[in-house]
Amino acid sequence: MRITIDQDVCIGAGQCALTAPAVFDQDDDGFGLVRPGREDGAGDPLVREAARACPVQAITITDD
Question: Staple partner for 62: which of 2, 8, 20, 44, CB 3.0–4.6 Å?
């Protein structure tokens, strides 16, 4: 699994960080980011739910 956030689409709603805080965080401006070293989802079962919760669909999950 590979997780990315399109920074051009993200509006900073924070649903990703609220849903799967072990994988997602927010930068100083409030926009979502994938925590360093967690680009593979770190086995967190809530990663897909976080992607579904994104109101602008800025999160992409690619299965390897």
Answer: 2
